[in-house]
Amino acid sequence: MAELQEVQITEEKPLLPGQTPEAAKTHSVETPYGSVTFTVFGTPKPKRPAILTYHDVGLNYKSCFQPLFQFGDMQEIIQNFVRVHVDAPGMEEGAAVFPLGYQYPSLDQLADMIPCILQYLNFSTIIGVGVGAGAYILSRYALNHPDTVEGLVLINIDPNAKGWMDWAAHKLTGLTSSISEMILGHLFSQEELSGNSELIQKYRNIITHAPNLDNIELYWNSYNNRRDLNFERGGDITLKCPVMLVVGDQAPHEDAVMADSGGQPQLTQPGKLTEAFKYFLQGMGYMASSCMTRLSRSRTASLTSAASIDGNRSRSRTLSQSSESGTLSSGPPGHTMEVSC
């Protein structure tokens, strides 16, 4: 590994009563496809995987995941796991703009950077949490390195390459819309954008005025040129680990679960997502003695257990007793848990 850098920083965030600031270390590692930056919180726990996150296009790890990991009930989870937040190349805060003609890595190549991160940290297994493009990258990594992935949380994943109609629509949109507008249309639904809530205004400002917007466009192009993951139910190409599929209620293709755009539940519904994540971890055999969240005590949540990752899925708007006890329906080779936030 060449050019390893380590910077000690302290993350600024609201603290719970009696809680001390959580130290973070930011590292940069050279890989065959360029340098990648990642931030580590906490210390490794014996016989437990690291939680590794990967953000969507237009965001970095902070703008994508801070509302989720700063949520009060999430603190019980992060105390039990070390976590690694990966920034796609050129997306980290203060990143220099890539020179003209720079060949940005494909999503497959971004996935191939992850082994360099784990080797540097000496981590053997992970639970991946990805949104959009990040969910695709972690899925590709899991397909290539199944023995190192204990579980996946995939938010708004689209595992398919763009078809001809999608490609044509993308080109036409590019003639009349700016890059920032297209990325906002990927992250949020038209209903959300039209409502122009405080959240939308915040992220519109972040993306429109991003100093690394040229870098963001490169990541965006790589996402739009992604290959099919070619998931096959019962076939050779399938995820071997437990999977939690998450889709926002605002996603335009919610019924398909795997949504390409619309709704960012980790931003808008951190409580629901935290609760579902806790049950998912319990189903994997971790945090068995975890206390019930405030959401569980106050109302019934929305979870579904299923056995496949394709479109033939049942939905439930109530939290089943099996989910509350941490057990999930399973089918070979792993089980899939679906959540609508």
From TrEMBL:
InterPro entries: AB_hydrolase_fold (IPR029058), NDRG (IPR004142). It is found in: Cell projection, Growth cone; Cytoplasm, Perinuclear region. Residues 1-27, 304-341 are annotated as: Disordered. Keywords: Cytoplasm, Developmental protein, Differentiation, Neurogenesis, Wnt signaling pathway. Residues 317-331 have a biased composition (Low complexity). GO terms for cellular component: growth cone; perinuclear region of cytoplasm. GO terms for biological process: cell differentiation; nervous system development; Wnt signaling pathway. It comes from the Eukaryota. It holds the Pfam family Ndr. Interacts with CTNNB1. Contributes to the regulation of the Wnt signaling pathway. Down-regulates CTNNB1-mediated transcriptional activation of target genes, such as CCND1, and may thereby act as tumor suppressor. May be involved in dendritic cell and neuron differentiation. Belongs to the NDRG family. This is Protein NDRG2. The lineage of its organism: Eukaryota, Metazoa, Chordata, Craniata, Vertebrata.
